[in-house]
Amino acid sequence: TVTVGVLALQGDVREHVHALESVGAHAVPVRRQRELDTVDALVIPGGESTTIDKLLRAFELFGPVQERLRDGMPAYGSCAGMILLADRVLGGIEGQQTLGGIDVTVRRNAFGRQVESFETDLDIAGIDGPVHGVFIRAPWVEEVGPAATVLARVESGPAAGRIVAVRQGPLLVTSFHPEVTGDTRVHQLFVEIVRDTVQ
Ligand code: GLN
Fold first, then answer.
1. What is its EC number (predicted)?
2. What pLDDT, in 10s, does the model give residues 97-153?
């Protein structure tokens, strides 16, 4: 079985651990480099990207995680995690850095006041049937480079057409939080990517 770390500096770590275990992965929280060294892949949870960025540096994990990503470690980022895996961020705070890896530009807190937090069903490439998307002060993807593939867009409402799921090789990002719905198909998709990558 594959071992998937969940970056456990801030954010909804436990929900990701549960979702990963329920699709047959061994899930472990990662707070130290020695824990990072034991995992095949990493999930970066939702939370606050500016805080996770600062804590990554405080825990001396920023460089080591970036190095693993450059070596091809699979990673999945939801919401704040999407921001951290993006090569470029709009609407960040002064000095905010991302780990990068996915050739996209994301906009932080993109959906605006009226739809700051909302839920909508999504059609995601590679997953059968609609997935219920929960968005909480979420980013969207504003530009996608040639190496990245769009997996889902918002279908209706004021944000119709906005890109909310992208894959680039072993990297997967979603604007929404599948870990809070009890539907484990996005985690299943990620664990399949991990298995294909490490085996
Ligand atoms: N708005 C948060 C940020 O910029 C993300 C919110 C979330 O992860 N639910 O990091």
1. 4.3.3.6, 3.5.1.2
2. 999 999 999 999 999 765 678 899 999 999 999 999 999 999 999 999 999 999 999
**Nearest atom, ligand 1, residue 135 CA:** 9
Domains, the chain, with CATH or none: 3-109+140-150+165-198 (3.40.50.880)
Q: Name the residue of 7, 48, 96, 115 whose CB sits within 8 Å of the most ligand 1 atoms, as the mutation to test its pocket.
A: 48
Which residues have a catalytic role annotated?
Answer: 79, 177, 179
Distance CA 37, CA 144 (A): 30
Helix, strand and coil percent figures for the chain, each rounded to 5:
30, 30, 40
Q: Which residue out of 83, 97, 116 has the highest number of ligand 1 atoms within 8 Å of its CB and is therefore the one to mutate?
A: 83
Q: What is the ipTM of this complex?
A: 0.95
47 is in an annotated binding site: yes
Report whether 85 contacts 102 (CB < 8 A).
yes
d(CA 60, CA 57): 5
